[in-house]
Input
Amino acid sequence: MTVAVPYTAPSTNSATGSPAHGPAAGYDLSGTLMDAALERLEAARGWDDRRLTPRVDTHRVESAVPIIVELRATLDLHRGGAIAANVDDLYDYMCRRLKSAGLPNGIAALEEVSHLLHALRSAWAFLPAEVVRAASGN
Output
């Protein structure tokens, strides 16, 4: 499943130069949260020089889970309809998958969630603004 999560550069009120509030602010927050989760997942990948194998920093993986939980909490399942429900299911799956990142095949879980979150982040940019507002409750 590919669902997008739009992101634009942080907007400002042109009259005051202060950060914008309202629908655009929620839109930017989702993108910022996704970027933060992706950064932590990327930082969680490492290399064990002694064994010459990839390794997972479980502390960094665990720090990405609350960010995904927060993204999930921003969804408005009532107004967002099927899109919001699908994204909610995807966030739930990501969290469950990251909890297995400390197991022997943890690098596969980490890479899968990174791939899913990258796809979601990229697709978000192509959703019409009214769909994003409905899905995120703004």
Summary: Helices lie at 23-44, 58-73, 77-98, 106-124, 129-136. Residues 23-136 form a domain with the Four Helix Bundle (Hemerythrin (Met), subunit A) fold (CATH 1.20.120). The longest helix spans residues 23-44.
